C-alpha cells in the first residue's frame, strides 16, 4: 500500500489556509521556559493571511524582556513550513499578557508540570 502524505492530503494544491489552520500549526511552537505551546499560553493575539499566502501573527510574550524571541521565531518558521509562503510576527505588548489568557488546556499542562494555576 503506498504511503500517503497527510499534509498534502489535508491541504490540496491551491487551497486557502484558514486562521484556524494557522492557529493549529502554532500549537507546535513551545515557550522554551514553560514548555507549553504559545496558543494555550494565550500568547497569540491574532492571526491572518495576507496576499501572497503570508501569515501575519500578533503575538506577545510573558515578559517584554524575554530573550527568546529568536527561538520562538525559528519554531514558528518550522511550524508554518509548507503551510504558508512566509510569515511575520508583530510583537504586541498591549494589552499585556497575564495568566488569565491561558486556555483550559494550557492550565492543565501547567498543573501537570507542578504550577499552581
TrEMBL record:
A Pfam family assignment: FeS_assembly_P
Coiled-coil parts of chain: none
InterPro entries: Fe-S_Maturation_MIP18 (IPR052339), FSCA_dom_sf (IPR034904), MIP18-like (IPR002744)
Domain MIP18 family-like stretches: 20-83
Protein name, entry field: Metal-sulfur cluster assembly factor
Species of provenance: Kribbella deserti
Amino acid at each position: 500500500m503506498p504511503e500517503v502524505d497527510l499534509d498534502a492530503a489535508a491541504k490540496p494544491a491551491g487551497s486557502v489556509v484558514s486562521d484556524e489552520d494557522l492557529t493549529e500549526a502554532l500549537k507546535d511552537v513551545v515557550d522554551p521556559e514553560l514548555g507549553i505551546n504559545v496558543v494555550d499560553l494565550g500568547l497569540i493575539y491574532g492571526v491572518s493571511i495576507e496576499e501572497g499566502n503570508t501569515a501575519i501573527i500578533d503575538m506577545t510574550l510573558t515578559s517584554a524582556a524575554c530573550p527568546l524571541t529568536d527561538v520562538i521565531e525559528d519554531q514558528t518558521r518550522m511550524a508554518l513550513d509548507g503551510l504558508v509562503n512566509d510569515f511575520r510576527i508583530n510583537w504586541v505588548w498591549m494589552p499585556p499578557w497575564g495568566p488569565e489568557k491561558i486556555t483550559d488546556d494550557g492550565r492543565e499542562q501547567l498543573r501537570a508540570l507542578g504550577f499552581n494555576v
